[in-house]
Amino acid sequence: MPQGKGQVKYAVVVVDYFTKWVDVETLAIIIAARIEDFIWTHICCRFGIPYAIITDNGKQFDSDLFRQFCSHLKINLFFASPAHPQSNGQVEAINKIIKKIMKQQLDEAKGAWLKKLPKALWAIRTSFRTSSRETPFSLTFGSEAVIRVEIGEASYQTTTFSPKGNKAQLALKLDLVEERRMQANLWNEAYKHVFRYYDSRVKPRFSKSTTGSCTKYHLRPRT
């Protein structure tokens, strides 16, 4: 990232595997103590202690301090293979989405990207996911957020809102959130099954260029 206010130029991204909720910590330097503070403050104190953390092999993660932190909280710490970082497939997929949205919203901001970051995160958290048919916000909190477009244009959520019945509606949504999460998990599994089926039928072809190098193409199989 371009250097922002306070010499901040790094961003540590955390993604929940199931809900796809994204959080980001901006840093001037990346050290284990700052990572530990971020995980404790923004993850553990808000959502609970995670079962596991999967990360790259950066020194800030593969350090005695961070390992002790995870061990103390009984968090399983796993590392993606440095030779094959794509083995951490879900994180790779989420990172592509994050990079695309961040590029669209932050590229022109240059050093002012810190001010634009919350807007980019909001877009990710409230965007409908094809795989789960839900938004990260709804799977995390049990109800949809009122987004900016609903302020200018009437929506079902804003037009049916009743202050008197709001408490009961929220309680009902919280009662149903586990059912919604189970359904989202089924959609996720079905979505992954389709991709595995497609990948199993892909036939790679190689074409030799004039320089003697080879280019690999994935061709969709005939149906």
TrEMBL record:
InterPro entries registered for this protein in UniProt: Integrase_cat-core (IPR001584), RNaseH-like_sf (IPR012337), RNaseH_sf (IPR036397)
Gene3D superfamilies assigned to the protein according to its UniProt record, in alphabetical order: Ribonuclease H-like superfamily/Ribonuclease H (3.30.420.10)
Residues annotated as domain Integrase catalytic: 1-144
Pfam families on file: rve (PF00665)
GO molecular function, one term: nucleic acid binding
Gene Ontology annotations of biological process type: DNA integration
Protein name: Integrase catalytic domain-containing protein
